[in-house]
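Notes from the 1:1 (GR / supervisor)

We went over the backlog. Supervisor wanted to see one worked example end to end before approving the batch request, so GR pasted a single chain during the call. The sequence is below; no edits were made to it. Supervisor asked that the structure be written out right there so they could see what the output format looks like.
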Amino acid sequence: MTDTLATGRELLLGDEALALGAIHAGITGAYAYPGTPSTEILEYIIGQEDPTISARWGVNEKTAYEEALGTSYAGRRALVSMKHVGLNVAADPFMNSAVTGVNGGLVVIVADDPGMHSSQNEQDSRYFASFAQIPCLEPADQQQAYDMVREAFDLSEALSVPVMVRIVTRLAHSRAAVTTREPRAQNPLDASSGTNWVLLPVNARREYAKLTGKQPKIVSAVHDLKTMRRTGAAKGGTGLIATGIAGNYVRECFSGSEGAGDELPPTLFVTGYPISE
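Structure output shown during the call:
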């Protein structure tokens, strides 16, 4: 075990910040299929050589997701990570897991690749989260990436649904100093079973009704995220909305950035979906 698990300051890639955040959130399992820009997430977890965490590559994204989902059904926290095109491969268990719900926290990290730096197409995985009717969090920097993973596990267990964390290449492969927090203990094994995990139509109809009934709570939980905030001038003729890493580009356009007060127009920094009306 390396000393990176101690609280303090770490210089981390965005991918590494997500991975360390998951470790400190008390995961028991981490699963992935390699694909830039997400590969370093599981590589980092494997590199910690923590015998209490099962960290494994899957033969594809679907099997990786199913391993993570099985870990969640057993009451433990699990992480699964992939790039955007990999979510197509994992779509079957991903969509179904929103209906069955989860037991231990389940977080799926999806790395989108705007500009196709290492991908055959562009996709916006936030649409997948919307389609599945689950929360999606989008960090703006490495510190938020670390903190949001812990928040994502909290949301997952509070709402009994998987939670997506969406990042992009420029965040995944850039470095910044991250302040870490005290690690949490892993969940105890909870072997209780539920027929809702088998999506026979009679179960699926009932569980889907539960999922749709959770939507007001999901919207409220995302709205209450500490990272969802307004800043800049109190009044102005033009307002801005920035999501994820784009918020950093907005700040760069105004001298003095966030602390400049009136120089930054009224700006809403969005870091989670669905957005309340």
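Supervisor's comment: The chain is about 40% helix and 20% strand.
Batch request approved.
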